[in-house]
Design a protein that fits this description.
424 residues, alpha/beta, Rossmann fold, Helicase, Ruva Protein, domain 3, Zinc Finger, Delta Prime, domain 3, 4 domains, 5-stranded parallel β-sheet, 7 strands, 8% strand
């Protein structure tokens, strides 16, 4: 039986990897490791279908080391022993260990000495946060890299590559893929290249040739094969982003009905990840300090939606949209940090005052570091007049409080009291 297209199209070298250029691009960390043949064990974490296995196989292909794949949940200690024996006999082996967060203590204890001596280069793959789910003993011996969902342009590049590759891809098939269908494959699979390639292969192999001898893949065919609907009126491939933009602007403008409409479009397209991410952005960008409780409730709603999946996810998400629409709004938080960043990027950082510098080492006092620092908790109301900003910025005011909700109104009053006390 022939392997799936996504398997056949895995990159053979690091330069063939699609996306993840923050890791594998020229001059980036994994590319440098490969160029220098100074590989260290690593953990790649991120959503399914984003290239974790591809990166591992590409590293092996570029370095010409033996490459083995195991699953921490289903493969046994004996399987690990076989890999270790191979490494002992023939040299370095790159081991891709999928679901590494499910590695039990027995297998872990067996692996550790082999990681220490460098015979096995471990590349762990997981969809879980490794800082929470992976044992510290493994974490301390690996570098941790986040693999991100692929951009639509990356997925389109991989699709076009698959359609022209006659050896491993679909180059021998006379495929005519419409632009709208290509856009849907790039956008509706939410950065999951495996899903896009598998949907493409199903479409190609299940669609009969037309009278011209072509396999014509239209938008409805791709919709059926990936089980995702295209957003209506997508003439230029931009409707996906237009709907997300309209959702945020409707919530910002407190129009509940419009916001529910635009979220409904995204739900109908099956784009749960975009909805969840956008609602979190909206909560903190547009509501923010106007109603921090609504921000926290949005986080809870997104967590519930992620666990439920569609269609039930629509319920907590609808609650969040209504809550955010009708909440007091404040963008003072994003305005404040962007104002601070503007100064920093303009080279206005300035030197940290001596009394704020670290004093937890011998000789700090000789440098005047930490000297004359006033510990606020030693003073009434846990506050004392003291300069914190660098001299060149000591009069800077980044936070401009608003009074659109009870919470930020209280913050505004406290901010103004402290400003007055600092100036006296």
């Amino acid at each position: 039986m022939q392997q799936p297209l996504a398997y056949r199209m895995r990159p053979k070298t690091i330069d063939e990897v699609v996306g993840q250029q923050h890791l594998v691009g020229p001059g980036k960390i994994i590319h440098r490791m490969v160029d220098a043949k100074m590989l260290s064990s690593m953990i790649l974490y991120g959503p399914p279908g984003t290239g974790k296995t591809s990166i591992a196989s590409a590293i092996a292909g570029s370095t010409h080391y033996a490459f083995r794949m195991l699953n921490a949940a289903t493969d046994s200690k004996k399987d690990l022993q076989i890999v270790a024996e191979e490494a002992k006999m023939s040299g370095t082996v790159i081991l891709l260990l999928d679901e590494i967060h499910r590695l039990d203590k027995t297998k872990q204890d067996f692996l550790l000495p082999h990681l220490e001596n460098g015979r096995i280069i471990l590349i762990g793959a997981t969809t879980e946060n490794p800082y929470i789910s992976i044992n510290p003993a493994i974490r301390s011996r690996t570098q941790i890299f986040e693999v991100k969902p692929l951009a639509p342009s990356d997925i389109k590049t991989a699709i076009n590559r698959a359609l022209t590759d006659s050896t491993n891809g679909l180059g021998e098939y006379p495929v005519k893929l419409s632009e709208k269908a290509l856009n849907l494959l790039g956008e509706a699979t939410n950065g999951d290249l495996r899903s896009a390639l598998n949907g493409l292969e199903l479409a190609v192999k299940s669609t009969p040739k037309n009278q011209q001898g072509e396999i014509e893949l239209t938008l409805p065919i791709i919709e059926e094969c990936i089980q995702k609907k295209a957003l209506a009126n997508d003439k230029n491939g931009d409707a996906h982003y237009d709907v997300i933009s309209a959702l945020q602007k409707s919530i910002r403008g407190s129009d509940v009905n419009a916001a529910l409409h635009y979220m409904g479009r995204l739900i109908e397209a099956g784009d749960l990840p975009s909805i969840m991410r956008r609602l979190l952005v909206i909560a903190y960008e547009d509501v923010g300090l106007g109603n921090p409780q609504a921000c926290a409730r949005t986080v809870n709603a997104v967590t519930a939606a992620e666990k439920l999946g569609l269609p039930e996810a629509r319920i907590p998400l609808a609650d969040a949209v209504i809550d955010l629409c009708l909440s007091p709004k404040s963008n003072s938080g994003i305005s404040a940090i962007d104002s601070a960043l503007t100064d920093i990027r303009a080279g206005k950082a300035g030197e940290i005052p001596d009394h704020l510098k670290d004093a937890h080492y011998q000789g700090a006092a000789k440098l005047n570091h930490g000297v004359n620092y006033k510990f606020p908790h030693d003073y009434p109301n846990d506050w004392v007049k003291q300069q914190y900003l660098p001299n060149r910025l000591k009069h800077a005011q980044y936070y401009q409080p608003k009074a659109n909700g009870k919470y930020e109104t209280a913050l505004k009053q406290q901010y103004e009291r402290l400003e007055k006390a600092q100036k006296n």
